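Field: COMPLEX_INPUT
Field: COMPONENT_COUNT = two
Field: RESIDUE_TOTAL = 653
Field: MODE = joint
Values follow.
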Amino acid sequence: MFRTRIAPPLLGAGIVLAVLGALVLAAGKPLGESFQIILQGATGYPRGEAFGPLDAWDAVLHDMTLLLLTGLAVAVALQAGLFNIGAAGQLLVGALVAAWVGGLTGAPAPLHLLLTLLAGAAAGALWAFPPAWLRVRRGAHEVISTIMFNYIALYFTHWLVTERLKDPAGDAPQTAPIAQAAQLPLLREEFLQANWGLGIAVLVALGLWLALYRTVWGYETRATGANRDAAEAAGAPTARRMTQAMLLSGALAGLAGAIEVCGAQYRFFEGFPAEYGFDGIAVALLAGNHPALAMLSAYLMSALRSGAYHLHAETGAPKEIAVVVQAALILYVAAVYLRRRRVEG
Amino acid sequence: MGEIFDAQLFGTAIRQATPLILAALGGLMSERVGVINIGLEGKILMGAFAAALGALLSGSPLVGLACAVLVGLTLALLHAVATQELRTDHIVSGVAINLLALGLSTYLFRQIIVPREEAGESSVVAMFGAARLGGLENLPVLNALLKDQSWLTLFALVLPFVLLIMLTRTRWGLRVYAVGNDSVKARMMGVPVKRLRYLGVLWSGALAGMAGAFLVLAATGQFRENMSAGRGFIALAALIFGRWHPLGAAGAALGFGFFEALQMRLQGQPLFGVQLPTDLLLMLPYLLTVIALMGLLGRMKPPSDLGN
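Field: COMPLEX_OUTPUT
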């Protein structure tokens, strides 16, 4: 019990603290004080003068919304045995389409928001379809095709935002702001970016939990991911489940992009933060692809980011500390929990 | 059109293609022994940083190159141990290595090189000069293409042929083929599967590190954050587009390098009377690879034992 269930997470936490400490020391910052600053950035406490608790929660809850959705996107595909590295591209396309639909006028408030979010999700799903089709029909590895679609999305959205959908009111490579009716309200008035998209993300997580663990569809999907041949032999429509999981994955990543547009940025622009799509991989792996645990791992990842950013703001230590820690965490989780079945001759 | 398609354009194409060829052939060595390697990007980036640091501290580009290869080998060793000893998923390990390289290279850059820049010291390193071609200089076309190229480029152009001979004409090459197609059977036949896998992955690290070194020591002269800029993934695309064949991969890398050079040259100028968006040219390698994956350009067959 201790060796298999309790020791690995403790060791993981120890490794995270050790890597974090080593990077802080190597940056020439005092250890105790730095950890205090990181903790402050991650939780808002103890309350600082320049950096009140609300700012920390603004950053943490905002990041958590996006990380949870991209984490769920990666997780649902992995449950069906597919590795969606394309969440970044799906997020970009979802965000751009949401910025376009949100920029139209005429629809009343709740409907316009709903349509904008749905359009973003649909665009993400559409972007995930070719890799799904290539995998199911052509046997092409989805990792390769989703990487290709990430770059196609990057250049495609860049072309649109600089040439076709550029805000005519300025020179900046960005779309016009979306209509008031398509905006998601902020969680608190004092916040700048944390919005009610978090509520949507949590509802999606709970819904996905039910769908994956309490329905026949979910059972078949997970069976497909565990062993496709066995699932097929047992009568599950594995090709269909894989395609559906991939489309759902793309939709969630696209929804993340739409929520970032409707709740925080109010437009699409050159250099839109697509990295959240990659960070979703860490969130999903850390949660063991479980939707409920993804809420916890999304919170931990965003707290880590906010803490590292706060340390950067206060002391000038590189904020990439968070990226290195995240990489170490992925390697650890992969080595301990995600071993391939041994096929020895 | 004459002023667009000149020898200089093709010379630039070869220069742009050099890191792609090196990294694609590295990826090929890894995938041929059955280890998926999406960590090329990270190895290029880390290699570029190591090259800049080594050359900056020593004043010698050769030391920079050695550092880049060493760092590439280290990251590759991490991938090999993770996939072969700890049996982690190849993709996950590759993703982690890319993240590690992005985080670590930026972190170290800000800790070591940026303070020097702020103190007014130059971060531009000594670079490799143009390689002398000897008797080849008398050949008109070859001279136009290869003059002013560094010897790393010449190495990258020769390497595919060397690799092809090694893969098809040596005992080692046949063993690599056996491991990549059925490692279980290969092991039963007495082929040292694990050793070959380690070697293949280490090769990929050395070559990807070298690709990173090229960016600093032969192309730009200094390190910049995330300067690999997706080249590892274009190399991966070239490897697949070239169907895991040394000449195919190198040819695809040259083609993709040509799109980059054309994009740099056009800069909004019309081509054949058509205004091509530069984004479209940059997108082309990925689009072509997707089309290849669709099976429209003939059968795609990766090594069958990939990822096990």
